[in-house]
Design a protein that fits this description.
By secondary structure, the chain is α/β, with parallel strands linked by helices. It is built from twelve helices and ten strands. The strands form two sheets. An eight-stranded parallel β-barrel has the order 3-4-5-6-7-8-9-10, surrounded by four helices. It has a two-stranded antiparallel ribbon with strand order 1-2. The N and C termini lie far apart (56 Å).
């Protein structure tokens, strides 16, 4: 397992990061089986675990915290979590305000059964909150010792720049890393987010390297399309009547053939592609089962030849996201019709 410095924090993290989204009600409901996956990942050399308060409404954090305490390994794990998403019916139990961040971090610390969080991230932009307020709250958390470093997740390039400038001008702690979606099928961040992160010395932790299952090997042409809870919740990303998803299916088929010719699994090709980008620090894998984990671990040692990378670019061009719905974030002016139409 390779270890890389996360931005300019001095913290060394494994090139594969264990994502815990699938631990809890949304995925693996057994705390014991989740702990087995966590322990196996640690034994394989992964020292980086990423979760969020919203994953199964806190249950993921509880499972991770319990597993680390039982194994007695908290001190050697780089632990990351996030806030922003709704955690209740109260309209103030969400977002990026100081009021909510201060409550959310204490809730996460309790669920994780730890005194500090190595990396605390803002899960999405919040257009209703001044970025200076958000950074001010996060700065206080760093100075109090509850948080070691801060980062953003799925921020567009212009908001990454705004946060960096605000931190410099206002004397705030700055985002040390960004966590964007990135895969063979979702390459939009190559055009702006990745170069911006390199310019500011930020680490990059990519999520959904298997494109929500499209690159797992289960989506092949002339085969029955698999059903999943995720597909039911996010039809815009899976419905094959939509042009963007048909493009994804065709590309996934070509990538599967390329992987076979290169002597590796499609999963290994997909993960290695993200790991090998020079701007990427670590790639998040999100196994629900031990079988999932074992299929993904070998990718840490895979290096792609230039001719394979050239063929990847022929299938999906650099900077292209085949289905815009996979970008993880839509500008408010496009998502909210009232911001572009007079009533």
């Amino acid at each position: 397992m390779e270890y890389r410095v996360l931005g300019r924090t001095g913290i060394r993290v494994s090139s594969l990061c264990l994502g815990a989204m699938m631990f809890g009600r949304f995925g693996e409901e057994s705390a014991e089986r989740s702990a087995e996956v966590i322990n196996r990942a640690l034994d394989a050399g992964i020292n980086f675990i990423d979760t969020a308060d919203i994953y199964s409404r806190g249950q993921s954090e509880e499972y991770v915290g319990e597993a680390l305490v039982k194994a007695g390994v908290r001190d050697r794990v780089v632990l990351a979590t996030k806030c922003h998403g709704p955690m209740g019916d109260d309209p103030n139990e969400r977002g990026n305000s100081r009021r909510w961040i201060m409550q959310a971090v204490d809730d996460s610390l309790r669920r994780l059964r730890t005194d500090w969080i190595d990396l605390y991230q803002i899960h999405r932009p919040d257009p209703s909150t001044d970025i200076d307020e958000t950074l001010g709250a996060l700065t206080d958390l760093v100075r109090s010792g509850k948080v070691r470093a801060i980062g953003s997740s799925t921020f567009p390039a212009h908001e990454i720049v705004e946060a960096q400038w605000t931190a410099e001008r206002r004397g705030r702690e700055r985002f040390r890393c960004e966590q964007p979606p990135y895969s063979l099928l979702v390459r939009g961040i190559e055009a702006d987010v990745l170069p911006t992160c390199r310019r500011y010395g930020m680490g990059v932790i990519t999520w959904s390297p298997l494109a929500g299952g499209w690159l797992s090997g289960k989506y092949r042409e002339n085969q029955e399309v698999p059903t999943s809870r995720r597909a039911g919740l996010l039809p815009s990303r899976y419905d094959l009547s939509l042009p963007g998803n048909r493009l994804k299916l065709a590309a996934a088929e070509r990538f599967a053939v390329l992987a076979e010719e290169a002597g590796m699994s499609l999963i290994e090709l997909a993960l290695a592609f993200t790991i090998n980008h020079p701007a990427v620090t670590s790639t998040i894998i999100g196994p629900r089962t031990m079988e999932h984990l074992e299929s993904q671990l070998p990718a840490a040692d895979v290096r792609l030849d230039p001719d394979v990378l050239d063929r990847i670019d022929e299938i999906v061009a650099p900077g292209v996201t085949l289905n815009p719905e996979d970008a993880g974030w839509r500008p408010p002016a496009l998502a909210d019709a009232t911001l572009r139409r007079r009533t």
